[in-house]
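User: Please work through this fold.
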Amino acid sequence: MIGLEDGPAPELALGTAVLELLTRAAATRPLLLVVDDLHLLDAGSTAALLYVVRRLRDRPIAALLSAESPLAAHLAGADVPLLPLGELEEEAAGELLADHGWAPPAPLRRAAVTATGGNPLALVELAASRSPADRLEDVAGRIAVPLRPRQRTAFLRQLAGLPAATRDLLVVAAAAVDVPAGAVSAAADRLGLDTDALGAAERAGVVTVRPAEIRFRHPLLRAAVYLDAPHHARTAAHRELAKAVAPHDADAAVRHQAFATQGTDDELAGALEEIALRRPASYTEVAVMLAAARLSESAFDRHRRTTAAALAAWGSGQADLARDLAVVLSTVTAPPIQARLAWLHGLLEIAGGDPVSACTRLERVADDLLTVAPGDAALLLLLGIAAAYDAGEVDSWRRAAGTVAGMGHPVGQLGEMFGLALDGRLPAAGSEPSRLLAGMPVEVGRHPGMREAVVMALGRSGRTRVLAREFGDVPEVCAAQRTAGMFGTLAMNLLWLTDLNIHLGHFDDAEASAEEVLRFTRDTGQRSGAAFALAHLARVAAVRGDHTQCREYAAEALTSAVPTLARVAAAHASWPSRWPRSPRATRTRRATGCSCSANRARRSPTS
């Protein structure tokens, strides 16, 4: 018996008693002893546990103890195996985020790993407790990600003993992401802080000071310092940092001004919009454009910029955020914004929803805009044709093409071209796309979706597919979009490129493009896009005579295509999967390149 006398029990007696208790518990089956946060236990309990752990080798007992990093001093020399846990690699971090309901595109995933230092708990908090817009603001701002109170306390504990002047100076440093150390010093001087006080933080290992920047030991330590500071201290830091960096980095100055501004500021909103437009369809554009919308004085500018952010969210692969923003804007009635929202809904439905609904919505909004904004109406109808093709809705295709054709010169030529392409009668001569686009009204010809629309029309007519691939510079455009992180747009262009390459006999290129689309669409839950990628892979497998792989791809494609009404994807998948297993069939497949699957889809849109 122990503990019957006053005062602490002897360590040896306590350790022996705990070991005996565990040994008895493990008499009938193996036992696992798990102790979390060992550093929070008192010295006596820790000593008893370590006494036990060192004596488990001949017993059916295993122990797993966790402690903060850096390890507590009492673990030094404890003669127990240690496994330091570093940051998660990007792939593992992506799997963890996906398990908690967030599957960001690769650039945003990398930014999330950078902002959290790969800390699993911080990644879980980022994914589970924030809206898509909040998550983006946390990651794109690169200053602070959400921390649980216990996690924040653990990091702030590392500042214990630092002078108050040092802690005040660390708030400025925490706000100064990618800001030179000299600018931080200048901002601190403006706030009346003594920069020499930073020496105490250096000696404690909290920060490293270099001419290029002041680097915190861990990104979450920076976040903890920033989040723990009063709001007025953070805004004051951003305000003075904006002044300090303005002569050297105008964009950084604008961003810090935005962090320091409460209420609206049209001039600042315009400057942010200019920054956003220099980073098209990237997660940075979305975050900066949303900040510009927040600062906009008029409702129209606020709605216009939010719509631009929503379209950029789709373009950068953030479909969930694009949908959230579309809901916020659902009551807006201004025709230009309605047109952009209809375009957004069409893209979302084509990529990951129901292309039949996309056809209906795009036609309806286009009809409303025919008299007040004919250019916008034409663009919506052209996107509607793309949705009609995916849905196998030949009548909708003809109706939309006829409406555009009826608009007269020069937009009408595009409608006529689509009508001819539907029946495979588009002549190679006289369909030069450069000449067509050169004659378009500015708002139509320069629209970012117009070039893809023309490529799509040309790609539906066998005699002009080479022209479509060359005119669209599709491989080069895809490479640029991949580099810029424009994954929503990239997926659509890659599907067109895959289809063109299959018809042109470039099967290796087609397979590589389809596999890239499949990875992205699976990550982001875009079932229609995944169905098309799988269907194209089935076609390539059919051409190569790989019956097993063809049927596997086709079956999976149909699983996604049928519920989402992606009928052409279903047609592409169902044709090769039914092909008979015979040498003659294989030879025929190789000769035709499976091109008849597209013709079958056009003849039988409901297949």
